[in-house]
Amino acid sequence: MSRHVPLASILALALAMHTGPPAFGGGADASAEAERALKDKVARATRMLAREGLLGSSGHVSARVPGTARVLIGPADVSRDLVSGEDVVAVDLDSRPLDKVHRPPLETEIHTGVYRARPDVMAVVHSHPVHSVVFSITGKPILPVTVHGAIFADGVPVFEHVGHVNSRELGDALARALGSHRAALIKMHGAVIVGPSVEEAFVAALQLEENAEKQLWAEATGRAEPMTPEEAARCIRQSFSPFSVAKRWQYYVDKEKAERRP
Amino acid sequence: MSRHVPLASILALALAMHTGPPAFGGGADASAEAERALKDKVARATRMLAREGLLGSSGHVSARVPGTARVLIGPADVSRDLVSGEDVVAVDLDSRPLDKVHRPPLETEIHTGVYRARPDVMAVVHSHPVHSVVFSITGKPILPVTVHGAIFADGVPVFEHVGHVNSRELGDALARALGSHRAALIKMHGAVIVGPSVEEAFVAALQLEENAEKQLWAEATGRAEPMTPEEAARCIRQSFSPFSVAKRWQYYVDKEKAERRP
Amino acid sequence: MSRHVPLASILALALAMHTGPPAFGGGADASAEAERALKDKVARATRMLAREGLLGSSGHVSARVPGTARVLIGPADVSRDLVSGEDVVAVDLDSRPLDKVHRPPLETEIHTGVYRARPDVMAVVHSHPVHSVVFSITGKPILPVTVHGAIFADGVPVFEHVGHVNSRELGDALARALGSHRAALIKMHGAVIVGPSVEEAFVAALQLEENAEKQLWAEATGRAEPMTPEEAARCIRQSFSPFSVAKRWQYYVDKEKAERRP
Amino acid sequence: MSRHVPLASILALALAMHTGPPAFGGGADASAEAERALKDKVARATRMLAREGLLGSSGHVSARVPGTARVLIGPADVSRDLVSGEDVVAVDLDSRPLDKVHRPPLETEIHTGVYRARPDVMAVVHSHPVHSVVFSITGKPILPVTVHGAIFADGVPVFEHVGHVNSRELGDALARALGSHRAALIKMHGAVIVGPSVEEAFVAALQLEENAEKQLWAEATGRAEPMTPEEAARCIRQSFSPFSVAKRWQYYVDKEKAERRP
Questions:
Q1: Which of A175, B185, C159, D262 stands the most exposed, by the fewest C-beta atoms within 10 Å?
Q2: What is the Cα Rg of chain B in Å?
C-alpha cells in the first residue's frame, strides 16, 4: 500500500501546474479530457478551501482554460464541501454561461474581470477569510510578517466597494484595484487571490490568511514590523517555488483523502 | 448519484420559505402534515446551530404555525445536537404547553413575547454566541462591519435584564427592547434573532456572530468603522435575498448530511 | 428508538445528584455497587472534560464516597480521553492509595486537601483551562460577566504557589486559599472547581472557562464591568438549579454517545 | 480488552527514552531493529504534531541514532499526517542523504546544524506554531508564564534570519543562536525545539505553544509577569520529569489510536 507520494510525482505535478493541454495534435478528445481534469481541480480546490474554513456557503474558485476565452467556475448552487468536477460550469469572459447544468455565481465578475485584465492569471480564488477581512475594516495594511506572507509584500490593495461584485463595471474596477498584485481585499467582504495555476492560487489563499492571523495577534500585543523587500524576495524564491506549491497542494489532497477514508 | 442541489430546488425552497401551509382545502390531514414539516425544520435548525457552536446545552429555535396562535419550539430536555421533529413541542402565545410529550424551555417567553408583539415574525432563535455576547458586557455597539453584518445596520439593542426571561412581563419587556429590529442581545447572556421564516432566522443568527467575531478583532487591533446606511441597504438587497438565504440553509443541510454519512 | 431523555429522567438525575448510596440496609453489595457507579461517573466527567479541552494529558476529577473517608480519583497513568470506571483509584483523606490497580495522581493533595477542609464538597475538578489561567498570569480578577459566570461572583481566589500541589502542606494551603469559594486558580497552572456532586463540579468547570473567554475578549476591546450581586444571585438561582445542572450534564453525556456511535 | 497503560509500561517507556540501542552484542540485526523503531518514533511524533496543528504541509522531526553520525528525519515529500517509519530518511551530519527512498527536507540543516553543535541533543522538532511565531514578529520575549512554559525560562532566542535555513552556514548560525537553550524561534517563520529524546522534544514543542498562547492573551489584556527562576526550576523538576514526559507522549499516542479506531 502506498500512502506516500514519491518525489517524482511531486515534481511531475509541479511541472504540470505550469503546462496547459496540448495545443494541437490531440484533437477534440484530448481537449475535452484536459478540460474535465481542470474542472476536477477547480472542484477539489473548492472543497479543500471549504475544509480549511476559507470558503463556506459561498466563495468560489475558477480557472481559465489555457489558450481560450473559457473560464471554469464553481457553481452558485452546489454546496462548497461537496462540489465535484461535473458541477463546475463554463462561462465566457463576459460571464455568460456556456452550458446549462448549473448557474454561475452571482459574482462571476470577480473572476472574469480579473481574467480580462490579467492575461498572466490562470486561476482565481474568492474566499471569505476571517482574519484577513479584518484589515479591510480597520484600514490597516496587511504586511509581510511571515515567510508565507512574503508573497504579499508588494501590498494587498483594498477594493473599496462594499457589496457584491456583480456587474462588468465592478469587475473591471476590482481588476484595476488589484493591479498587478497577487491578492486584493474586497472591503468588509472577502479576498481575491490570483495565480498562474489553481494550485498556486489555492496555496496563496491559505498563506494570506495564515499571515493575517499572526499579524492580528502581533498588533493586539505589540508592533508588527514587516520584513524588508530583500527578505521578502528571498522568502518567495525559497518557499513559493513550484516544488513548494506542489507539495502544499498534495498535502491537502492527501488530507482530504485521509478524512474521507471511512 | 446526485449530491448537488439544482437551481430549481433552491428556488423552490426560497419560495417555500415564505409560504405557509394551504389555508384551506387540505383539511386536517394537510395541516397536520404541514405542522410536522415545520417541526422537522425547527429541529434541524436547532441541530445545525449546535453544530456551528451557537447553541449548546441550552438555547432554542421556534416557529409560529402560520395563521394560528400555535408556536412550535425545541424542548427544554432534549440535547440540542440530537433533537428531532418529534421532540418539538407546541405552546400557545401565553407559553402554555399544548401537548405533553416534552417540557417547553424555561425561557419560552423569549419566543412568545416576540410573537405577541411582532406579527411579522414567524421564527425566533435564542442562541449563546461567544463573540456577540461580549458586546453586551462592554456595552459597545455591534456595528455593520461586514457584508453579512449589514442586516444588523439598524442596531442590535441590548435587553438590560441580566438573568432568565421566564415571565410574561420579561417576555414583553424583551420584545419592547427588540422593537422592530432583527436581533437583540440579552445582557451577559445571549442573543435573540427573529425572521419571517426559520431559514432566515437561522442564517441571520450565523451572520450576527460572524460579524461580531470580525468586529472584536478589529477593535482589538484598530478602529471598527461601520459601513454607511447606503452600503448596508445594498448589502442586504444583494446578500440576504430569498435565494441567498435558501442557498445558505441548504449548505448547512448538506453539511449535516455529509457528516452523518457512513 | 429513544434518543431523547424525558423530563422524568432528568428530574430523577437531579435528585440522584444530591443523594448518596443507601446509608444502611443494602449491606456490602449495595455499597460496592454505589461505589462502582460513582467511579463510572468520575471517569465519564474526566472523558467529557478532555473532549471539551479542559483536561489534556493531565488534570483529574474526584469524588468523595458519601459518609466515608474514601476519595475516588482518576489515575495518574491512564489517558484522560479513555479512562473508564475500572481505572479510577481509591485513596484516603491522607492521599494514601487504598488499592493497587493504578497510581493516584502526583497532585492528589489538590483533592484531599479540599475534602479535609470542606465537608460540603463531594467532588473536585482540577483542570487546565486556557483562558481562565490567563487571569492568574495578569493578576486581574475573574469577574461575573455572564449568566454562567455568576456562580463565581464571590470571587475566584488565586493560590499563589507556582508548581505542583504535591504535599499535605500545599494541599492545606490550597484549601485555605479556596476558602468557601466554588473555584480557585493555581497560579500559572490551572483551576480547581468544587461542588456537592460530580455533575455540579463538572458543569461549574465548564462555566468558569466560558466566562473567562468572554471576559478576555471584553478586556481586549473595552471594559468588563461585572454584574451586580443581586443579578448574580438571580442568575445562580435560575441557571444553576439541580434541573439546569442535570440538563447540562446529560447534554455532554449524549454528545459523547453520539460521537462514539460509529 | 486493555485500553489503559499501566504504570509499569509508562515507567519502562520513561527509561527507554533515555536509552539507546544496545552498544554491542546484538550485532547488525539488533541495530537495524533499533533504527527501525526510532524511525517509527520520528514518524509518529510528526503525525501527532500535525494533528495538534504544529506541523502542516511542512515542518519535520528528526532523531540522531545514538552513538553514530546518522540522523533520521521525516522526508520533504510525504504528507505529515500520513508519514510512516518507512518514509523516514537517513542523512549524515553534513545533511547528505544516506539512502534514496525519499528526499530529505530542504531545511535539513536546521537539524544537522544543531546536532553538530550540541552532542546532548538527540532529537529536533521544527514546527510552525501560530502563537509562538508572533513573538518573533513583535520582538517581545517569550516568558515563562505557565508551569509548562517553565522549561523555557532561560529564554527562547530568535534567529534573526528571515528565510529558509538551507545551507551549512545557516545551520551553524542557527545553532549558535540556539546556544544551550531548549528552543529558538526562526524569525517570522517557525520554531526549533531540541531534546535528549524524541519524546522530550515532542512534549517541549507542545509546551512552547501552550505557553505562547496564554502569554499573548495576557499581553492583550494586561501584563505578563514571568515566574521567578526559583519557581521555574521547581516547575521543571516537577512537571518535566521522565515520568511526566512519558505520560504526555503516551497520551497523544493513545489519542491517535482512538481517533483511528473506526
A1: D262
A2: 18
CA Rg value for chain C: 18
Predicted local confidence at residue D8, as pLDDT: 54
**pLDDT for D15-69, tens place per residue?**
566 544 444 455 678 899 999 999 999 999 999 999 999 998 889 999 999 999 9
Higher pLDDT, B30 or B151: B151
Per 3-state DSSP, what percentage of chain B is helix, strand, and coil (rounded to 5)? 50, 10, 40
- Exposure on the CB side of residue B245, measured as CA atoms within 13 A: 24
Check residue A26 and give its pLDDT.
58
User: Are residues C224 and B137, on separate chains, in Cβ contact within 8 Å?
Assistant: yes
- Average pLDDT of chain B is 91
ipTM: 0.91
| Closest A-chain CA to D103 | A7
Average pLDDT, chain A: 91
Length of chain B: 262
B188 φ/ψ sector (left φ>0, alpha ψ -120 to 50, else beta): left
Could you report the per-residue pLDDT of A193-235, keeping only the tens digit for each? 999 999 999 999 999 999 999 999 999 999 999 999 999 999 9
Q: State the pLDDT at residue B15.
A: 57
Closest CA to B253 of B84, B71, B49: B49
Dist CA C2 CA C18 (whole Å): 26
- In angstroms, what separates the C-alpha of D14 from chain A's closest C-alpha? 31
**Distance of alpha carbon B190 from alpha carbon B162, whole angstroms:** 10
C-alpha–C-alpha distance, residues D203 and D244, integer Å: 9
Which of C5, C234, C254 is closest, CB to CB, to B81?
Answer: C254
pLDDT 10s digits, B7-38? 455 555 655 665 444 444 556 788 999 999 99
- Side-chain-facing half-sphere of C214: CA atoms under 13 Å: 31
Selected residues 194-233 of chain C with any CB under 8 Å from a CB in chain D:
216, 219-220
Q: Report DSSP state, residue B193.
A: E
Task: Return the C-alpha cell found at A120.
Answer: 498572466
- The answer to whether B80 touches C251, Cβ cutoff 8 Å, is yes
C28/B contact by beta carbon, under 8 A: no
Residue B159, classed as helix, strand or coil, is: strand
Rama region for D87: left / alpha / beta (φ>0; ψ in -120 to 50; rest): alpha
Please report the pLDDT score of residue D17 as a whole number.
63
Q: Kindly give, in sequence order, each residue whose CB lies less than 8 Å from that of residue C195, ignoring residues fewer than 6 positions away.
A: C121, C122, C123, C182, C201, C202, C204
Note whether B65 and B71 are within 8 A (CB): yes
Q: Do D10 and C78 touch (CB under 8 A)?
A: no
Helix, strand, or coil here: A190? strand
**Mutating which of A214, A215, A245 best tests the D interface, going by the most D Cβ atoms within 10 A?**
A214
DSSP of C216-238, one letter per residue? HHHHHHS--PPPPHHHHHHHHHH
Whole-structure pTM value: 0.93
Q: What does the alpha-carbon distance between residue C5 and residue B77 come to, in Å, rounded to a whole number?
A: 7
Q: Nearest by CB to C231, from B87, B103, B162: name it.
A: B162
pLDDT at C148: 97
Residue ranges for chain C with pLDDT beneath 70: 1-27, 260-262
**Using the 8-state DSSP alphabet, how is residue A77 labeled?**
T
* Distance from C-alpha of D174 to C-alpha of C47, rounded to nearest angstrom: 41
As a whole number of angstroms, the distance between CA C240 and CA C248 comes to 10
Facing residues of A158 across strands? A185
- In angstroms, the CA C122 to CA A32 distance is 71
Three-state DSSP at A162 gives: coil
**Per-residue model confidence as pLDDT tens digits over A15-69:** 566 544 444 455 678 899 999 999 999 999 999 999 999 998 889 999 999 999 9
Please calculate the CA angle D251-A217-D133 and round it to the nearest 5 degrees: 55
Question: What one-character-per-residue DSSP string does D236-249 give?
Answer: HHHHSSHHHHHHHH
